[in-house]
Structure formats: C-alpha cells, structure tokens
Amino acid sequence: MTDPALALAPAPAPVPAGGALRAAAARIDAATPAGRDRAVDALRALAIAGVVLGHWLVTALVSDGGGLRAASPLRDMPWLAPVSWAFQTLAVFFLVGGHVATRGYASARSRGESYGRWLGARLSRLFRPVLAVLGLWTATAALLLLSGAEFGTVRTLVKLALSPMWFLLVFAALTAATPLLARLSPLWPLVVVLHADLLRFGFGAPSWLGWVSLAAGWLVPFTLGAAWTRGELDRRRAGLVLLAGGTAATAALVAWAGYPASMVGVPGTPVSNLDPPTLAAVTFGLAQCGLALLLRDRLRRVTRRPVAWAAVAVVNLSAMTIFLWHQTALMATTAGTLLLGRLPGLHTRPDGLDWVAARIAWLPVFALVLAGCWAAFRSRERGRPRRGSRIVRAHRPSGTTRTAGARHV
User: Fold this and answer.
1) Which of 199, 225, 286, 404 is the most exposed place for a label (fewest CB within 10 A)?
2) CB 98 within 8 A of CB 225
3) Which candidate, 118, 251, 233, places its Cα nearest to that of 186?
4) Cβ of 58: how many Cβ atoms within 10 Å?
C-alpha cells in the first residue's frame, strides 16, 4: 500500500531545462583534471567547427536534370573569399595535433610505454569511426546505382563523403613520425613547399611535384605544435611574429604572385590553394597559428565557465565523428528534400546573395541531421578507457575504491 503521507505530498517541481544543462555542465567541469590546459581543447573545437561550417557554407549540390553536381558560391561570387579565411582552420588543427602528439609521446616514454602501444592508441581513435562511414557509403552507393541513379551523381556524393579521409591519412602519417619530428624546425618543411611552388609555377615543372607539399605543407603547423611543447612559443611575441609575418606573406603572394585569394578549392579553377597545399596556404596557416597562440590565455579564461567548457568537452570527445559525418549530414539533407522541388540554398545554383541567405537558414537543419549521425555513430569513436591524456574523468559509483579510467582526447 502507498503511504498516505507520500500520497498527499506535493509532486516535486520540474527542473527547468536550463538548470539541468547547467548542472550537467558543472559535473563535467568538476570531472576535468585540474592540470588540463583547456585552451588546447578549445582550439581543437574551434578548428573542427571552422571546417564544418566552412564546408556547409561553400559546398553546393545543384539539382541539374535529375542529378546532383558539385558547385561553390566562391566561383560565381569570388568576393566571398574572406569566408574561406575565417573557416579554413586546418592549420590550427595540425598545430594542436603536433602539440598533443609530442607532449603525449614524451609522457608515454616517461611512463615506460612503448612507441607501438602509444601509436596504436592514437591511431585507433582516429580510424575507429572510419569503418562506419565506409560501410554506410559503400551500401548507399550500391543501392543508388542499382536504383538507376546517375553515375555522376553517385560519384559526386561519394567523393564529398569520403573527402575528409585525406586529412586523416596525412594526420596519421605525421603522428606516426612524431619521434622524428619532435625537434624538427618548421623552416625545413616551409622551404620544401617554397621550392615545390617555385619549380612548378616559376619554371614549368610537372604539376605532380606539388604533391610533395601535401605532407610538407601540413608539417609546418605540426612542427609548430612541437615547438609549443618545447616551450619555444610561450612568449606573446612568438604569436605576434607568426600572425604579422604570415598575414603579410599571404597578402603579397595573393596580390603579386597570382595565388588564389580563396583558401579552399573552387571547382573549375586552374589552381587550388589546398589541392595540394600551396605556399600561400602555408603562410596563411602560419598567420592562423599565430592568432591561435595569442588567444590561449583568453580561451583559458572563457573555458573556466562550466557551460563553455562542457561544449568544448563534448566536441572534443566526438571530434572525429563530427568531422567524418558533417558532409553526410549536408548530402542527406540535400538528397532527402529533392522530392520537394528545387529548394533555394539547397538545390539551386549558388550565384547570388539570395542563395547565401537561404544557405545560412539551412545551417540549423544540417546541424540537426549531424546530431542524429552523432547519436547513431559516436560509440564508434569511444574505445575502452585507459590512462593517459584525458578530458574528463570517468566516475564510478560511490563505494568503489579503484580509480576509474579516462577518456582519451
């Protein structure tokens, strides 16, 4: 029987949604190791957010005769190139990656952990979510072709879905070479990119020579991250020199050397700053790295707020899932609404400000679909907790005495 006193007691007041979120944020804040440099995670979260928003803003799938073809608003509206300056943030990701890799490897060595075990843990976090993406798009491509979809459309979709893979391969290769790169000066890979561009643009060398810069170009911010670990970039002057020097060099290369102003690829243009990376992309990355270094103290202050830190922590714990599925979210929205007709900002040609306004209005829809992908596939990114670099401690119920493991960053 029910206790009469309990039956007559008033129901507890519902907890406001905002209060529940703040309580959850406070728990995440309290579970974070005290010595963690939150600026590192904030920079990684900003880099991921920049890539995602950049792709959503400059990638268009135009409905053309029953199929879909890739287009970019930067082709018809080149004056929008500054958008690519704000959202092409890969250099910051490699900066943080180099810093975390070299610091993590040094920590592993101090614990007596082997190189193979350290590398296996890092690469498994990178590639564990890839299998789900490959499996889904293999099945999707097969079904589309069997149902009579145009080969060009299927090729466009698969290419966009799998395009983030190049980043993972380069990042994995640089991570594997961390012991060799820990003390390498960024000037060496910068000189390699300079000579590759000089030979192919100045002396007519074969265009394939530029692919040397695929590794060398991203090695520049990666080795800057190693210099950060060594304490060589702690002074504010280092950030100011990188920001000013990188900005001036990029402006000169665009204004007088003929490099494209857009820092992302534009379909149909003869030269792309990213495919492979050009000297302009590398100097632009130096400027971004300088700005990132200058923002460290401010980011540390901002992420002391529990709500801000909780948002950063969530993005970091699912960074690869977000990165790998954000193009799928865009394409699922685009293809899934084709039956409704050619919707502005989604299926129409990106050639005017009306398209830009409509595309901005679609961003929350892309985010909602990406959240669904995150909910479905985030478990692929999270392996068994182990000691080492961590963002929040995994708590056990009270009464247990053994120390809990932790999630890897």
Assistant:
1) 404
2) yes
3) 233
4) 24
